Amino acid sequence: MGRSQETFNKKEVRTRKEKKRKAKVEKREKKKAEGKKNSFDDMIAYVDELGRISSTPPDPEKKIIVKAENIEFATARNKPQNKDFLKKGVVISFNDSKGYGFIRDLDSNKNFFVHANNLEEPVKESNLVLFESGKGQKGPIALKVRLLRESTPVNDKGQV
Predict the structure, then answer these.
(1) Residue 6, Cβ neighbours under 10 Å: how many?
(2) pLDDT of 131 strictly over 90
């Protein structure tokens, strides 16, 4: 007796799923019969002294001891572009509650993003500041911002 409303396509899909399930069961039984066990040791991979991946552990005689003090690491995105060069700028906006703002460089009229973490002294709008420039995720950022003068007259374009 046929199932109601069963099309050829539905039968085909059902038989394919059953075949797949049976194949999976057979594969599992075959693995059990062979006695092959999945162990952690089979999954381990080693890296030799040249950086190549291998299945054998490295030779302990070729081991190089590295002191932790000799390892150098740093994030490049917050490094100042020129360490010796300090830029002069005017704070065109700074939101204390959000902790960020913008500084306009007096020489190039370029805007630099500044975060509260990069401030060495508290600043407010229209303050004259000294800072180092760096590269951030979305553009130039001001690092190590120091207050130079409290308030300067600024026009609507952020120029002194």
Answers:
(1) 10
(2) yes
Q: What is the pLDDT of residues 50-65, one digit of tens each?
A: 778 888 888 888 778 8
Do 93 and 104 contact (CB within 8 A), yes or no? no
pTM summary value: 0.45
Assess contact for 149 and 123: CB atoms under 8 A.
Answer: no
Q: 87-149 has which fold?
A: OB fold (Dihydrolipoamide Acetyltransferase, E2P) (2.40.50)
Q: In the numeric block, which tokens belong to residue 143?
A: 């690092």
Q: Give the domain ranges of the chain.
A: 87-149
